[in-house]
Structure formats: structure tokens, C-alpha cells
Amino acid sequence: MNNKSHFQHNAESMASQLGPALCLAKWKQVSLHLTTGLNNSCYHPPLHPIDPAAIATNPAALHNTQHKKAQRRIMLQQERPGECSYCWNMEDLGQLSDRHYRSGEPWAAVDFERIKNSTGDEDAIPSYVEVNFNNACNLKCSYCSPQFSSSWQQEVERHGAFPTLVPHNAAEHFSGSRKSIPARDHNPYVEAFWSWWPTLYPELKHFRMTGGEPLMDRNTYLVFDYVLAHPKSDLHLAVTSNFSVEPELSTKYFDYVQRLCNTDIEHFMQYVSLDSGIGPQAEYIRHGLDFKRLQNNVETYLGDIPYRNSLTFIVTMNNLSVTGFLPLMQWILDLRKRYSRTYQRVWFDTPVLRQPAWQSLQTLGESYAVKLEQARDFMVANLETTADPFHGFKDYEVQRLERDIAWMRSTINVSTRDLGDFYRFFSEHDRRRGTDFEATFPEMLTWWKQCSLHAR
Fold it and tell me: What is the pLDDT of residues 207-232, one digit of tens each?
């Protein structure tokens, strides 16, 4: 492809410097799930626990856990930690992995030499931080769980687990350390975060709030108030939302974002979770979503808050994303043409879903990979050009979709257990929630019937 982006160039350049195992995200990035006291460096490795005794005296241990330091030491020895298998699999398929992309970004690459020469035992101050303050959420997305959605939690407490071969989202599973700490209760992890915040904030380049649904959480607005009182010119502030909350809450939120974008911060990024095309299919995957409300909020954000901001759709690639993916790309292209003028304001990312396994892309046959290739061809036909910037697709966006297609095809034998569990899960989904898979995904009816044969 011509007109290679800086992002793609930086990833390729970093791939030649990192060696076989080093990933700067283990030092410079962290996702904090403060509702359960869990942590990972990005969304690929499994979550691991934060030691509550350690954070009582050293709040930086929210990020610098003993487990993570052990993984850092393995990387510095040029060995691959097992928990990072997704990236190793991508690289073994000949693809650039997320460790190349993440490590190539300026907030990480600036510390490459220092990290390369470290022991792995030092406490690091991350420059890219994601925080989940609580699990309050008004949606019940099909691949989510009670850990991240209070609505899911209420459903399984009332109706029990879903009848997959291993019962899914059983209420008793989410007990003890797996149970989210209610917002009304004392939370030592949130307390440690606010103790760490004055030390963390000056070093931050990217700060992102996730959920649950952050628009429903008081800590989101406490962060906003702090930033408004202490503006930081190199700060990229971000929030991930389903963009389908009650209108009164949206109004409050947009008022805050308007003020933030008029103060001295570098940029405000709005992440919007949306896993399929336009309308009913999106609402089926993300149960409780009002797609029209989401669409109106996207237009309000892009139309009424025109400065220092952009919007990214997070498209979690699963087997229900495929048939609606092309219409979603067409809508994104339309938004780019209408709202991106002097810089790109409409982005998207396509991370793959690996769990639950029955909703993975790898359960689908070749005809569905071809559908994604048709979407890729649409993207290639509408690439951004020097003469017409911001109104097409980026080279790395195409490469990421190609990576997802390669991963989709990398499993030779589809698990019949996963096909059966897909049917078991979504049959119960339809029964409990009043939905109708066959009416919503008529183009998948043959595959649905195939799944039903393996559920007997």
C-alpha cells in the first residue's frame, strides 16, 4: 500500500528492535479492574490479582505486581511469557502483533533503552492507564460477565447459569475474590488508586476509563473535575461507553466533555463499543442497547463538540460480527467524510474475541472468512490518499482486519463442543431475554441449524 502511516511504520521499526520477546506494555501500560482487584498489562493476558497488603503501603503495586515483575524478567531474558500467547501466535503466522504496535507508540517507545537495560524488578510508572472503577452497567452483552456488568449479575442471581456444557456465568462462580465490590462498599483498590493518583497523573500520557459503564460512575466525574482543575497539555483523556445511557446522563456527560475540550488537554477520545452493523444485530449482541440512541449520541458528540476530540468504535470481533461488518464499515466511512476535516475524528479497532470460545471467529467456516474479505476489499477500495486525507481507511486498519482473518482461519478443526455451546447459550438467551436469533441473523440460519445438531 502507498502512503504508509506513521503508526504502521513505527510498528515495523519496533519489530526489528524488540527482539523475540520484549513488550514495552508490560512496563508502560496497565488495565486496572478495581471492582475485583485484578490487573493486566493489556487485554490479551489473563487478569491476575493485586495484593491488597502491598497496596496498603505502596499504591504503585496496583500496577507493579510480583506476577508482572516476573513476566518482565522473562521478557528481558528474551523468552516468551506463556500468558502473551496471542501475540506469539500472530507473529508465528507472519503478522505484526499488538506488542509491535503498542511498543512503537511514542508513550512507550520513549523508554525503550531504559526498559531494555532494566532488571525487571523496578517499580514502573505507566504512561498508559485504563481503569474500571465499578461494574455498574445497563447492558448485558453476550460475551460479558457479572464481573463487568451489574445487569448480568442481577440476571444470573435470578435465573442461574446458562446451560452450556460447563455452566456459563453461574452466580456461585462470581463469589469471593471474583465478586465485584459494590460501589456503596469500601473498596481498598479504589482507595489505593486515589492515593496513587497525584504521583501517577504528572506522568500520564493516556488515561482511559472503562467499565461497567463509566457514564454511570461517580469516579468518572471526579477525574473530570481533577483534570479541569489541573489541566495537562500532553494528556490524552478517554472514556469507553456503550453510548446508550439515559438522556439525562448523556446531557451531563456531554457538558463535561465540552468543558474538557475547551481546556488545556491534548485530546479527548471517546470509545464506543459496537460489535456489528446497523440496528437489530448490534442490539442482539449487546442486549439492552438502543442503537438509535447510540447513533444520535455519536452524531451529537461529533457535531456539537468539534475541538480536541475524536471517536473510536471498539468492534470486538466475534462470530456474530461478521455479517454486519461491511455495513458498519460503510457507516464509519460516511462519518469520516462528514466529520473529519483537518484531522481524523472517526476511528475503529477490531480486537478479536477469544472467550467464550463458542462466540469466537474460529467457529465459523470459510464462507464467513470470505465475507470479511469482502469488507477488506471495500476498505482497500476506499483507502485514504494524500490528495483526500481523513476520508478513507488506513493501511494498518486493513492489516489488522487481515490479521483477524488469518487468526480466524488458523484453526483447522472446529470444536463441535463449541458449536453445541453456541446453540445452547443463544437458545437460552432467546428464552430469557425475548430475543430471536433466527429472525435477527437469517443469513446464518444454515450454520445455526448445524450448531443445533451438536447440542443434542
Answer: 999 989 999 999 999 999 999 999 99
Residue 1 predicted with pLDDT over 60:
no
- Measure the CA–CA gap between 183 and 62, rounded to whole angstroms: 19
Residue found by looking up cell 453476550 in the block = 142
Domains annotated for the chain, with CATH where assigned, are 6-120 (no CATH), 131-453 (3.20.20)
146, 174 in Cβ contact below 8 A? yes
Distance CA 24, CA 44 (A): 14
Each residue's pLDDT tens digit, 189-200? 999 999 999 999
Instruction: Find all residues with CB under 8 Å of 263, minimum gap 6, and list them.
Output: 227, 228, 231
The percent of residues in the chain predicted with pLDDT above 70, rounded, is 99
pTM of model > 0.70: yes
Q: How far is CA 233 from CA 98, 311, 318, 430, in A?
A: 27, 19, 37, 49
